[in-house]
């Protein structure tokens, strides 16, 4: 059984790098729209009971609840710490966990089918890189490594996660798919997506 963690910053502070393309209200609206879309894809892929949102934002918790999804408070400093705390809580709360998936909210083309395919991947660690092969846009870790796999989000996280998998003795599978690789990380990404959506 695959469980999904969806980390989400407080909506008022999300996507600050899009400031040249969107004002604060627009960025907040975009973050909530992406959160709802990501929740819908994850729920369709694995079921609401297997999805958790990780956030310090009470409104994010309410959005998750409206989708039938539980939330875990983000009380850590930074994404890696928040995911480590959420993982510990998840391992305490569930009796069966075959695979853990980390899914960010800023993948506008993500679909349930691609998430189901990632969940079914035979490799013990699967990494979906961004278009530059720099960041990690999707991470799946098999049960045998869930407790020990180090989260290394940040610059060059794709390579750092691949190195972490090899250090644990397993060769990671790499999922190259534009539905995963395309993220809304910079103003040019947003404009490309907005132009495509308007076409």
UniProtKB/TrEMBL annotation:
**Which intervals of the chain form a coiled coil?**
none
Task: Tell me the SUPFAM superfamilies matching this sequence.
Answer: Nucleotide-diphospho-sugar transferases (SSF53448)
- Keyword tags: GTP-binding, Nucleotide-binding, Nucleotidyltransferase, Transferase
Q: Secretion signal: which residues?
A: none
Q: Extract the GO molecular function terms from the UniProt entry.
A: GTP binding; phospholactate guanylyltransferase activity
> What InterPro entries does the annotation carry?
CofC (IPR002835), Nucleotide-diphossugar_trans (IPR029044)
Pfam families cross-referenced by the UniProt entry? CofC
Question: Gene3D superfamilies from the xrefs?
Answer: Spore Coat Polysaccharide Biosynthesis Protein SpsA, Chain A
NCBIfam families per record: F420_cofC
Write down what this protein is called: 2-phospho-L-lactate guanylyltransferase
């Amino acid at each position: 059984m695959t469980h999904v963690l969806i980390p989400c910053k407080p909506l008022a502070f999300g996507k600050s790098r899009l400031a040249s393309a969107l004002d604060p209200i627009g960025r907040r609206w975009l973050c909530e729209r992406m959160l709802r879309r990501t929740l819908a894809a994850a729920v369709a892929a694995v079921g609401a009971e297997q999805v958790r949102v990780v956030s310090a934002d009470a409104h994010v918790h309410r959005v998750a609840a409206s989708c039938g999804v539980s939330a875990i408070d983000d009380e850590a400093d930074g994404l890696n710490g928040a995911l480590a705390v959420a993982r510990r809580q998840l391992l305490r709360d569930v009796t069966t966990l075959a695979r853990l998936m980390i899914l960010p909210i800023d993948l506008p083309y993500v679909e349930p089918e691609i998430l189901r395919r990632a969940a079914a991947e035979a490799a013990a660690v699967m990494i979906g890189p961004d278009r530059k092969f720099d960041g990690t846009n999707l991470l799946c870790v098999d049960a045998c490594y869930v407790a020990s796999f180090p989260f290394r989000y940040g610059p060059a996280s794709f390579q750092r996660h691949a190195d972490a998998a090899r250090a644990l003795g397993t060769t990671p599978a790499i999922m190259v798919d534009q539905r995963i690789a395309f993220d809304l990380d910079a103003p040019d990404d947003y404009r490309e997506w907005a132009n495509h959506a308007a076409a």
